[in-house]
Amino acid sequence: MSETGASYAAAGVDIEAGDRAVELMKEWVKKTRRPEVLGGIGGFAGLFDASALKRYERPLLASATDGVGTKVDLARQMGVYDSIGHDLVAMVMDDIVVCGAEPLFMTDYICVGKVHPERVAAIVKGIAEGCVLAGCALVGGETAEHPGLLGPDDFDVAGAGTGVVEADRLLGADRIRTGDAVIAMASSGLHSNGYSLVRHVVFDRAGWTLDREIPEFGRTLGEELLEPTRIYSLDCLALTRTTEVHAFSHITGGGLAANLARVVPDGLHAVVDRSTWTPGAVFDLVGSAGRVERAELEKTLNMGVGMMAVVPQESVDVALATLADRGVDAWIAGGITERGEHTDGAGMVGDYAS
């Protein structure tokens, strides 16, 4: 038995490495600062001046929390860490904006087997860049080292965010009416859902490696799979400022049908015309390489649509123009009908209902 006394370092926790990681991330966190943020990184809690909410008649706080799932393992294998931060912000803040809320601030949690300061800083860099794209502040976070539970290169990320919306501008199912149009906004790829299926298909079934060049992608498999999730927060808020919006739907796990159904009220039916767009090559690849049935793809992946907006017909032109001005590929994908009402258009999918 060793006569040397036990220590935190001997147990696998490197406090100095953690401190180094904090120093490296400070410059990136600073870039997310909003006027309402008080203090700086390093405190026990992030501070946000709530007096800024006095301009609201009845402010409602919106909160969400999420992670990135098994996509983090691909980042680990490729040694690319900043894009995962974009994914995390998108998963959290695009849930918050669905109700019409403006993203205010976010916190993150990074769990690692061993602190590699540069890696942790790269993850936070990506989170900070994502926060800038979402218009929110990164007010704090936690890096936890879990030796013995995670391998030295293993890690996971999670985040929580808060936004605010005026009560009488809250978006959702109660605003939706028959005749409303459903506008689809293109995804940047797989985003951050369905990666357990994707990994099973490309690695276990197809036996491919991340450095495999895929002609349909014009890049490697790994580069395609790590494409950052598009952050729609400011695009959605721009729509609410320029025209009338009844609801948004963030297309994440569960696919188009399940997520659109979450904002469609009882008695109404959302009909989406699948002939109005062609999903990207990555969706065909997953389907063909794994011989995945179309229904399984539809209920697992976003199929090329990352966000949907439900707007009255008179708002369609302004909505599409606003999104085009912001560089968002968008189109009319369907509409809202009475339940039981029939449509005859080719490619109409009637099971996208609440």
List the helices and strands and how they pair.
Elements lengths: L14 H16 L6 E2 L8 E2 L10 E9 L3 H8 L3 H15 L5 E11 L4 H18 L2 E9 L9 E12 L14 E6 L8 H11 L7 E2 L4 E2 H5 L7 H10 L4 E4 L4 H7 L6 E6 L7 H9 L4 H7 L4 E7 L4 H10 L4 E9 L9 E2 L5
Parallel strand pairs: 4-5
Antiparallel strand pairs: 1-2, 3-6, 4-6, 7-12, 7-13, 8-9, 10-12, 11-13, 11-14
Helix pairs in contact: 1-4, 3-4, 7-11, 8-10
Account of the protein in words:
With 354 residues, the chain is of the alpha+beta class. The chain has 2 domains: 9-166, 2-Layer Sandwich (60s Ribosomal Protein L30, Chain: A), CATH 3.30.1330; 173-349, Alpha-Beta Complex (Phosphoribosyl-aminoimidazole Synthetase, Chain A, domain 2). The protein is 33% helix and 23% strand. The chain has helices spanning 15-30, 71-78, 82-96, 117-134, 195-205, 221-225, 233-242, 255-261, 281-289, 294-300, 316-325, and strands at residues 37-38, 47-48, 59-67, 102-112, 137-145, 155-166, 181-186, 213-214, 219-220, 247-250, 268-273, 305-311, 330-338, 348-349. The longest helix is centred in the middle third of the chain and has 18 residues, at 117-134. Belongs to the AIR synthase family. Residues 178-342 form the PurM-like C-terminal domain. Keywords: ATP-binding, Cytoplasm, Ligase, Nucleotide-binding, Purine biosynthesis.
Secondary structural class: alpha+beta
Mean pLDDT: 88
Number of contiguous helices: 11
Radius of gyration: 22 Å
Strand order of the largest sheet: 10-12-7-13-11-14
* Residues in helices, as a percent range: 25-40%
CATH superfamily of the largest domain: PurM-like C-terminal domain
Parts with pLDDT < 50 across at least 5 consecutive residues? 342-354
Instruction: Compute the number of structural domains.
Output: 2
Q: Give, in order, the helices and strands.
A: HEEEHHEHEEEHEEHHEHEHHEHEE
The top-level CATH class of the largest domain is: Alpha Beta
What is the number of E strands?
14
Tell me what portion of residues adopts beta-strand conformation.
15-25%
The CATH topology of the largest domain: Phosphoribosyl-aminoimidazole Synthetase, Chain A, domain 2
Q: State the separation between the terminal residues, measured CA to CA.
A: 65 Å
- Largest pleated sheet: 6 strands, antiparallel
Family: Belongs to the AIR synthase family.
Main location: cytoplasm
Catalytic activity: 2-formamido-N(1)-(5-O-phospho-beta-D-ribosyl)acetamidine + ATP = 5-amino-1-(5-phospho-beta-D-ribosyl)imidazole + ADP + phosphate + H(+)
Domain PurM-like C-terminal: 178-342
